[in-house]
Amino acid sequence: MLTDNKIKGLKPTEKRYSLSAGEGLSIDVMPTGRKSWVLEYTALGKRKRKKLGEYPAVSLKQARELANKIKNNAGLTPITVSELIHEWIELHSKQWTSEKYKYTVIYRLTYITNDFKDMAVADVSRAMVSKAVSNMVAQGTYETAKRSLRLLSQVFNYAIAHEYAQNNPCTLVDNIIPTHTVQNMATLSADEMAGFWHTIRKTPTIGLAPVALSLANYLAVRPSELCKATWDEFDLDKGVWIIPAYRMKTRLEHAVPLASQPLKILKDLHASRLDDGFVFKHHSNPTKPMPIESVLAVIKRAGFGGRMTTHGFRSLFSTVANDSGLWRADAIERQLAHTKKDVRHVYNRAEYWDERVALMSWWADIVADWQA
Question: What stretch or stretches form a coiled coil here (predicted)?
Fold first, then answer.
């Protein structure tokens, strides 16, 4: 702890250095031997730095009283989690070259802190963070939980460095996240799907997330590919969806045949659209896509959290199609946009096209029976 005796004994060095006195107050020691008080605090989400005079003209006790007075006069309250995240992002986003990455960071931090975003940073407990992570794990979003927790831990380390908090509540919470990656692909069996959809229909929901869930089953695409789809990618007259390369995990353009059932769903959505942007919009910001977690929430509310995921529809499609013996394995793999690295140069989005059109029509009939 900084005391008057310790301050008196501080010696100058070739470069200026600072020592913390707590709660944003510090003393700068200049190469000349001059010692100055500095207060750093956050007001209205902005970082401020104010000089409070020189030592010993202003004693440690006086500096602390002055610092408290300044903060009280400014009507300051302890920084909240939302304000901390904003401050952290403002600092680090200057180094990020991708707006998409910035959006992902903001989304993950907003999602994991939703239940305690308005709390003072110092009041957030490990139990609160554990509960938020447990909710994500229950939805089957293990990787998202892991990455969101890692980001939040970085934010709290920043808070400790700036004396907004004394401890990092994210410590050890990663132990509750399953390590077996196979759980990321959690899926029900074909025999369970009719019951799954019967329960989904009876579960109260809001918005278009259930529609997105239905299409995820019909189309067997990756969750991010569906949630971020835009209307200009669809040719509803020809019944085809072209997913651009930049949105594909493989970074290769992919064509999806639209059977009659999913095509009708899309045409109905298109008729009621407000613009030509995202097919599935964020519930509070129509300029952004629906989060994958919104679709997963439908599964969780129906009681299938941890047993089924949106990605699980792809696993189920692969299993049922391969087990049928009706389709070539290469056609199934191409429809799933699985591409081996050594054949990327010969990839053709239309390869096995006629067989894939028939395959997706056959699959849609199966899904329609489940969803009936």
Answer: none
Kindly report the number of other CB atoms within 10 A of residue 89's CB atom: 17
- What mean pLDDT, rounded, does the chain reach? 87
Determine the pLDDT at residue 142.
79
> What Å distances lie between residue 270 and 230, 266, 278, 313, CA to CA?
11, 6, 11, 24
**Structure token digits, residue 270:** 């298109």
Beta-ladder partners of 43: 46
Angstrom distance (rounded) from CA 151 to CA 149: 5
Provide the 3-class DSSP secondary structure of residue 283. Answer: coil
Provide the residue range defining the domain that includes 165. Answer: 81-179
Alpha carbon separation from 365 to 28, 103, 257, 356, 359 (Å, rounded) = 73, 37, 14, 14, 10
Give the predicted TM-score (pTM) of the model. Answer: 0.53
Cα separations (Å) of 188 from 156, 198, 307? 38, 14, 7
CATH number of the domain at 226, please. Answer: 1.10.443.10
Tell me if residue 349 falls in helix, strand or coil.
coil
- pLDDT of res. 31: 93
Amino acid, single-letter form, for residue 63: A
| Domains of the chain: total | 3
Mean of pLDDT values over 127-134: 94
